[in-house]
Description:
single chain, globular
Amino acid sequence: MEKRRGKFIVFEGLDGCGKTFHCKVLCEYLNSIGIKSIQTCEPTKDEMGKLLRRYLSGEIETSPEGIAGLFIADRLDHITKKGGLLELLDNGVNIICDRYYLSSIAYNAQNHSTEWVYNLNKTAIDLLTPDLVVFLDIPSFKEDRISSRGEKEIYETQEYQQMVKQRYEEALSMHKGAYVKISSNRDKKDVVKDVRNEVLKLF
Ligand code: TMP
């Protein structure tokens, strides 16, 4: 019998929108009903992802272009490495990913147009387009939730996040695959229910 290819489900949204929580809850739920799933994230937890975290924390500096390029390198490695996303999907594993290329468009177009970042990401997009992007929508950046998480990262200012919010709209309009916008500014239980309903349509 031919193995069914896994589904690639991506969560996106402003910092503090609840992505990490909802990725975890969804992944646990899918596994509990026999849909084998794993959770992953970008920046990854590999060496390039760790280097990115050092730039994001402000510990070391580079140009916005340097950061954009490193996100692509981390993403391509995530997709194509041994045991990476493509291999897992081919083996029938479903993947829940906390951020993917839409984050690059929303966050890394600092000195450029969103098309510039889209084009940089073209190789990754051609290799792997999400089966579904779940955009968790909040009216504005939740500073309190971030500060309780630890140190602030370079993009975590109200001003920057306002721009990110606008850029996400552009990113979603450029995205050629399926996406759903879910308001995350509600009781978590309702958000969990809506996310499940949307994701279950894929199976
Ligand atoms: P996180 O806090 O959701 O783990 O994401 C880390 C930060 O990385 C967040 O501020 C968004 C940023 N980011 C980019 O700037 N470009 C990207 O391509 C990705 C995946 C994340």
